[in-house]
Amino acid sequence: MDATTTVVWDRALLDYDMGDHPLNPVRVELTMALARELGVLDRPGVRMLTPEPATEADLTRVHRADYLEAVRHAPLDPFFRGWGLNTDDNPVFDGMHEASARICGATIAAAEAVWHGTTTRAVNVSGGLHHALAARAAGFCVYNDPAVAIARLLDQGAQRVAYVDVDVHHGDGVQAAFYNDPRVLTISLHESPLTLFPGTGFAEETGGPGAEGLAVNVPLPPGTGDAAWLRAFHAIVPSVLRAFAPEIIFSQCGADAHRLDPLADLRLSVDGQRAAYLAMRDLADELCDGRWVAMGGGGYALVEVVPRAWTHLLAAVTGAPIDPATPTPAPWRKLAAERCPRAVVPETMTDGTEPPVERWQPGTTPDPVDRAILATRTAVFPLHGLDPHDARD
């Protein structure tokens, strides 16, 4: 029987709108429209949940109170500067605090539904704002909803929370929030910090005192495609998760590792992203009775990529995967063309690829992805009692 699922959604989540900016909420609108047209949201066992904004107490588990006050004040002052706000990356907008708090509230609602056993899996596609720091906006992110939701569960007694981030950018804000906390494992696969914002996420970043090995970073060279990316994922993520034995898994599923994304330089397909979502679901089923909280994240090919990728994510969370050959419904194609007239609207749910399954093997290969895999395994695996050179680990 399919696991029960909570989909957290409210059109008010689209109010996180920075204007003429890459992080356009139309990508979330089109995701939910596509999932609805394909019947994903009407599956048996799916519960739609309207979230409340996160409270001050929720937000200050991660963010400083004076930073929250700055976020409230910034839209009122056209000359406001500081805290990472009113920049090209993080422009201010009316209702910024309320919109950001609502996204945090949505991820909290997803996390609590799973943690308290109301549902097995939950998803907030508007979330995944993983760059925000304790007192600074960064990378289009004002408040850090994954960190806020994880902190809420820690306060409620969680002892082993795993966070897996497959956005093209390093999940620096979540790592920073829990770098010294032995209760939280953060794993991030991302384009090399030598070539991409935020410039962190090297293999040598492995956790602070008392939490050694609980920050796991897999920096991949520009141009990495499906086969090599999935090889890196399977060479590292399952082994570390099994050693950590999480009670619950959070996944940040940014779609910007796709080859069409305009802001980065990895080369995944929608089919490769779909494979990653299914792998994370399988690991949650194996390790923590299916308890899985999924979020969106980055993704700037607003029509061509994000709606299809995250509809595959919603399908993975709610039950059976969508056949990649499935056509995109005509009403959705019409809506997408109306919302983004210059976009090329995809006609199917596939990019026409079938990502191969390749097993990592130790050795002296000159392949830069294999070197990156070995660097991460060498840095982290011994801290978990694993052999970095044994492909069985």
Outline the structure in words:
The protein has 393 residues and is α/β, with parallel strands linked by helices. The protein is built from 11 helices and 8 strands. The protein has helices spanning 26-37, 56-59, 65-73, 96-115, 145-155, 172-178, 226-244, 270-287, 306-318, 330-339, 368-380; strands at 5-8, 46-49, 121-124, 161-165, 184-191, 215-220, 248-252, 292-295. It has an 8-stranded parallel sheet with strand order 2-1-3-8-7-4-5-6, sandwiched between helices. Helix 1 (26-37) packs across helix 9, helix 7 runs parallel beside helix 11 and helix 8 runs parallel beside helix 9. The longest helix has 20 residues, at 96-115. It starts with a strand and ends in a 13-residue tail after the last helix. The mean pLDDT is 97.
Q: Quote the beta fraction.
A: 5-15%
Helix content: 25-40%
Terminal Cα span: 31 Å
- What's the Cα radius of gyration? 19 Å
| Order of helix and strand elements from N to C terminus | EHEHHHEHEHEEHEHEHHH
Total number of helices: 11
Q: What structural class do helix, strand and pairing data support?
A: alpha/beta
Unreliably modeled segments: none
Strand order of the largest sheet: 2-1-3-8-7-4-5-6
Shape: globular
What does the largest sheet look like?
8 strands, parallel
Mean residue pLDDT? 97
Number of extended strands: 8
Family: Belongs to the histone deacetylase family.
Keywords: Acetoin catabolism
Protein name: Acetoin utilization protein AcuC
InterPro entries: AcuC, HDACs, His_deacetylse_dom, His_deacetylse_dom_sf, Ureohydrolase_dom_sf
